Structure formats: C-alpha cells, structure tokens
Amino acid sequence: MEHLRIPLLSLFVFLLNLSPLHFLSLADDYFINCGSHDDVSLTPGQNFSGESKPVGYSFSKSKAVKDINQLPDISSLYKTARSFNKPFYYQFSITEDGNYLVRLHFSAFSSSSSNNLSTAVFGVLDSKNFTLLNNFTTKNTTYSPVIKEFFLRIDITDSFRLYFTPQPSSFAFVNAIELFPAPADFIAENYTSNLPLHTVYRLTIGGSPVNDTIWRKWETDDSHISDQNSAKKAPPENALNLNYRGGIEGLLASNESVAPLSVYQTAREMMNGSSNITWFFSVSSKARHIVRAHFCDIVGQPGNSIFNLYANANFRKEVGNISQSSIFQYSAVPFYYSAVPKTNFLKTDST
Ligand SMILES: *[C@@H]1O[C@H](CO)[C@@H](O)[C@H](O)[C@H]1NC(C)=O
Ligand SMILES: *[C@@H]1O[C@H](CO)[C@@H](O)[C@H](O)[C@H]1NC(C)=O
Ligand SMILES: *[C@@H]1O[C@H](CO)[C@@H](O)[C@H](O)[C@H]1NC(C)=O
Ligand SMILES: *[C@@H]1O[C@H](CO)[C@@H](O)[C@H](O)[C@H]1NC(C)=O
Ligand SMILES: *[C@@H]1O[C@H](CO)[C@@H](O)[C@H](O)[C@H]1NC(C)=O
Ligand SMILES: *[C@@H]1O[C@H](CO)[C@@H](O)[C@H](O)[C@H]1NC(C)=O
Ligand SMILES: *[C@@H]1O[C@H](CO)[C@@H](O)[C@H](O)[C@H]1NC(C)=O
Ligand SMILES: *[C@@H]1O[C@H](CO)[C@@H](O)[C@H](O)[C@H]1NC(C)=O
Ligand SMILES: *[C@@H]1O[C@H](CO)[C@@H](O)[C@H](O)[C@H]1NC(C)=O
Ligand SMILES: *[C@@H]1O[C@H](CO)[C@@H](O)[C@H](O)[C@H]1NC(C)=O
Ligand SMILES: *[C@@H]1O[C@H](CO)[C@@H](O)[C@H](O)[C@H]1NC(C)=O
Predict the structure, then answer these.
(1) Which ranges carry the Malectin-like domain (predicted)?
(2) I want to staple 199 with a disulfide (CB 3.0 to 4.6 A). Which of 38, 62, 149, 290 is the partner?
(3) Of the candidates 232, 200, 194, 188, which has an alpha carbon nearest to the alpha carbon of residue 337?
(4) Of ligand 4's atoms, which has the minimum distance to the CA of residue 121?
(5) pLDDT tens across 15-49, in order?
(6) Which residue's CA is minimally distant from atom 8 of ligand 3?
(7) Closest ligand to the CA of 69
C-alpha cells in the first residue's frame, strides 16, 4: 500500500447516499405532520402540513394518535403519529419521473388510544415492495426522534406508496414524512441499480455539525476516526474557489447542490509522523455501499498534497497529483469522488 505523503484534505464520507439540491417540481413536495391537523415548522423552512386537508396524497385506514404526556421540550411534530395494528399506506401523486428523497420520522411516545409506540415492531416497504426498513423498532429511543433517509427512483407509472407493515400482534407508526425530488444527476457515476439508497452515515470532517438547505444532517467525524493522534483539524478556510463548474479532467467539481460549502471549509490534516488517517464505519454485511468522499485542499500550497484514498482493500484513488488532473494545481477547489467498492467493506482507509 502506498502511503499518504502529505496532509489529508477536507474529506467527508457517507455511505449509501448522494446529494441533491434543486426541487424539480414543487408539486411533488410533501412534508406531512402525520396524525395531526396542525402545521409545524421543524427547522427554518422545513414546514410540515397537518392532515386535515391532504393535497396530492392520501392514506389508508389507520389511527391518528397523540402523546398523552405532551412533554414541552420536543417539537409538536413528534407528539402525534399515524398508527395501526394492520398494514397501512400513504399514497402520493407524483408528476415527474426521477429520484426522490424520502425521510421518515419516528419518535416513540405513549398514547391513550394506542400502546407505547416504543413497543411497535414493523417494516416499511415502497410501491415495488422493496423493504426500506425491516423489523424496525424505536425501542430505547423514547422522545429521541429517529430519522431514516432514502433516495428512491420513482416512475410516474407507479402509484407511489409507502407501506407500514406491523409484525404479527404488533403495530406500525410514523410521525412525519418528507418526500421531494432530488436532481436527476445526483446518483453516483456508475451506480446503475434502481434500488433505493439508504443514508447510513453523513459526516463533515474536522468541523461542527451542519444542517444543509435540504435538511441533510452532517455529523462530526470524531467518533469514526480510528486514531485521534493521526490527524488534526485544519484551520477553517472561508474563501473557496468555485470557478470550476463541472470539473476538470474527469474530476467533478462540487457546489452547493452537491454539498453545503461549509463542509469544504473544514478538514483534517495529517499529523507529522502518522502514515494514514483511517475512519471506521459499522455497516451491514448484507448491503452494498456507496462511498462519496469530498475534498478541498485548504492545507498548505496547492499541488503539495498527494495521497491515496482507500475503501478497504478494493478501492483506491490517487488524489492530488497534478499530472492526473489540473484541478489539483488550484487551492480551495471543492470536488468529490463516488465509489461503489466491489465487495463489502468495514472501514475506510486513507493512506
Ligand atoms: C414555514 O413556516 C413559517 C412559520 O409558520 C413561515 O414563516 C415560513 O414562511 C414557512 N416557509 C415556507 C417555505 O413555507
Ligand atoms: C415506553 O416504554 C419504554 C420501555 O418499554 C419506557 O422506557 C418508556 O418510558 C415508555 N414511554 C412512555 C412515554 O411511557
Ligand atoms: C407487494 O406485496 C403484496 C403482498 O405481499 C402484494 O399483494 C402486491 O401485489 C405486491 N406488489 C408488487 C408491486 O409486487
Ligand atoms: C422479524 O424478527 C422476528 C423475530 O426476531 C423474526 O421471526 C422475523 O422473521 C423477522 N421478520 C422479518 C421480515 O425479517
Ligand atoms: C434496548 O436497550 C436494552 C438495554 O440497554 C438492550 O438490551 C436492547 O438490545 C436495546 N434494544 C434495541 C432495539 O436497541
Ligand atoms: C465509471 O466507469 C468507467 C468505465 O468503466 C471508469 O473509467 C470510471 O473511472 C468509473 N467512474 C468511477 C467514479 O468509478
Ligand atoms: C439541526 O436541526 C436539528 C433539528 O432537526 C436541531 O436539533 C439541530 O440543533 C440543528 N443543528 C444545527 C447545527 O443547526
Ligand atoms: C452542481 O454540480 C452538479 C454535479 O456536478 C451539476 O450537475 C450541477 O449542475 C451543479 N450545479 C450548479 C448550480 O452549478
Ligand atoms: C516532521 O518530522 C520530521 C522528523 O520526524 C522533522 O524533520 C520535520 O521537521 C517535521 N516537520 C514538521 C512540519 O514538524
Ligand atoms: C495506518 O496507520 C496505523 C498507525 O497509525 C497503522 O497501524 C496502520 O497499519 C496503517 N494502515 C494502513 C492501511 O497503512
Ligand atoms: C504523479 O503521476 C505521474 C504519472 O502517473 C507519476 O509518474 C508520478 O510518480 C506521480 N507523482 C507522485 C508524487 O505520485
């Protein structure tokens, strides 16, 4: 294995996930406050509508349930839910083919007309019967919302539905649903499957947590780095060089549609004496994963940082060699790679 020669640049990694921004069509935007009549704004601009007058969507027989405890310090989005002890679905009118982002919000509470939601065990399937969540439970997460995010291909010939299917003698629930279009080009290069993608990790490296303009959450990488002494946080760089739309020589320049620029303004760089920086991720061995790594050379002189990015042993990409791409001669240019490692991997090495 080759070794990282100079500093590692801004890097963040996320698995089974890609990155959109534009809304193709407002008609296909759904933000639903399930089981409630009230409109709720969760974060600025992220407004969920109550279900008193559903527009463009419907749901099958099920119950609206409400938290009997009504704790004040949690969004009212999480104090109501739609629940049932038999399968139920939400059906959405979709007017354009494309890739859509779906987020399902779950937060367990106790209700008079239902059980303690934390006892529910259920699955979530899409219109093609693809399992988004299997034997899902919010046990141990009472009052701590769990948000599951998916990227799905939807054809307008589908009558798009999300099915909530309880295990025998259990029930299913959901507190809120987001469904809106992602740009057509958000799928990773060479990822040809139509299977839904499930976001597993999304990290900003060396920075603070970020919520972006489409409410993607970027967590810190601190708990994924294998050796804290291998890397230090680089001084943040506020002036990025965004003059390379589209990219240069096969490298994709990034922009705010791909990822918020703030994630490119922070980085980790190697400590003197370490040979690599390694991040570890626990993943399911039953799934294939996409890794997208984002870089921006905000460390030292441009062209000085040449290193390899590895995902386990089966993916390697040389980064920073000017003879591979002239993009590397400029500093502070955001760019990214996506890879689908050939077999499963349990860690991401950068050497
Ligand atoms: C979201 O709701 C807030 C407060 O109710 C409102 O001020 C804002 O304009 C809404 N934003 C959108 C995008 O609808
Ligand atoms: C629901 O049950 C769990 C244990 O199963 C318990 O920890 C939690 O406090 C209960 N929630 C409420 C709101 O009663
Ligand atoms: C999904 O599964 C259900 C029940 O197993 C079945 O009735 C339905 O036809 C299936 N739908 C598709 C699109 O395969
Ligand atoms: C869910 O878990 C139960 C018990 O652990 C198991 O019997 C069942 O087969 C699982 N269901 C699915 C769809 O995996
Ligand atoms: C919930 O917590 C208990 C005790 O901490 C643990 O044994 C159990 O596996 C947890 N369940 C889930 C679904 O995480
Ligand atoms: C996509 O496939 C082409 C042809 O196999 C290859 O040259 C290219 O490097 C691949 N791109 C990525 C990001 O893996
Ligand atoms: C991101 O949004 C969540 C609510 O969804 C909020 O709790 C959190 O504080 C926000 N984080 C930042 C860094 O804005
Ligand atoms: C952002 O980058 C993506 C992918 O490289 C590209 O398709 C899109 O047009 C770019 N958006 C802007 C506003 O430049
Ligand atoms: C890195 O360490 C080497 C010896 O291990 C030393 O010669 C060099 O000056 C150090 N560089 C920096 C930037 O500290
Ligand atoms: C990365 O560096 C650590 C020491 O910091 C070393 O144990 C490990 O073997 C290195 N991994 C690779 C792939 O070079
Ligand atoms: C950069 O790439 C060229 C051509 O592939 C190669 O000859 C050279 O050794 C590389 N430079 C470094 C520092 O790896």
Answers:
(1) 32-318
(2) 149
(3) 188
(4) 1
(5) 333 333 333 345 689 999 999 999 999 998 899 99
(6) 129
(7) 2
